[in-house]
Amino acid sequence: ERGGPGVQSLERAIAILKSFSLAQPERGVGELSRELGLHKSTVSRLMATMERGGLLDRDPHTQRYRLGIEILVLAAHVAGSLDVQEVARPFLKALSVEFRESVNLVVLDLPSPGSGQSAQVVNVEQFVPPARQVKDIGRVGRRMSSHATAAGKVLLASLPPDLLLEALPVPLPAFTAATITDPTRFVAELARVRQMGYGLACEELEEGLNAVATPIYDHSGQVVAAVSAAGPAYRVTPQMLP
User: For a tag site, which of 3, 63, 108, 209 has the least CB within 10 Å?
Assistant: First the structure.
């Protein structure tokens, strides 16, 4: 039952594990006792148990604890089984309802080295708010040129310079009068995306269509996808996008 000794001990152990962070990689029994409002002997017993299980390591000199290697093993199992599409789905739906515009999950399809092809972005998930007139821009499976889309800019901005050179078409094709076709200007645009943390595309792929996108990172800090919101320019104005 909740509140019983078994559950209570587990809740306390979870609180101890969650107390570790980049700012506080090492924790002592005394400080955790005060911080969590638990008796020192209780904290000591729990941490010793987790040390035996490999979840914590103790420094023999300072007697302070760090997260153990078994945490990394368990985290790898979780990270390996995560599907970004499945994880993102409820968030995309919530964003679509909040913004009342179409929201897409987008990935980058990089060409094989030496193939002579350029990178494209692919919509792998889409949510459209009910009873809302939207342009047919983000159907699942649609491929688009990466340099003319907000999501494409976000995904390209995450690439190292050598991969970026392989990914970009030469020359950069124009889809509208607003499409960035100058390579120098486009590289500067990607630098701006990295600085802002999001990408914008104002009528660069289709006239009358504006979009904003932001990156999705995996557990290691690598960009694995982007989420974008897009809509008619008269409704999704440049002033709204940031």
Answer: 3
Tokens of 199: 């990408």
Q: Are 238 and 203 in contact (CB under 8 A)?
A: no
Q: What is the pLDDT of residues 73-122, one digit of tens each?
A: 887 776 665 688 888 889 999 998 888 888 999 988 887 666 667 788 88
Tell me what pLDDT residue 213 has.
Answer: 95
CB contact set of 116 (below 8 Å; sequence gap of 6+): none
* Non-local CB neighbours of 61 within 8 Å, separated by 6+ positions: none
Backbone angles phi, psi at 2, to 5 degrees: -60, 135
β-pairing, 223-232 vs 120-127, is unpaired
Strand partners, 143: 122
Residue 129 · residue 100 · CB < 8 Å = yes
Taking the model in full, what pTM does it have? 0.67
Q: What angle do CA 179, 182, 185 make, to 5 degrees?
A: 95
Q: Are residues 210 and 221 in contact, defined by beta-carbon separation less than 8 angstroms?
A: no
What letter would DSSP give residue 27? B
More confidently predicted of 127 and 201: 201
Query: Could you tell me which of 1, 4, 12 has the C-alpha nearest to residue 45?
Result: 12
Helices (H), the chain: 5-18, 29-36, 40-52, 69-81, 84-99, 150-157, 161-167, 183-196
Cα separation, 59 vs 51, in Å, equals 11
- The pLDDT tens digits of the residues spanning 57-82 come to 999 999 999 999 998 888 777 666 56
Cα 114 to Cα 111, 117, 118, 147, 171: the distances in Å are 8, 8, 10, 19, 16
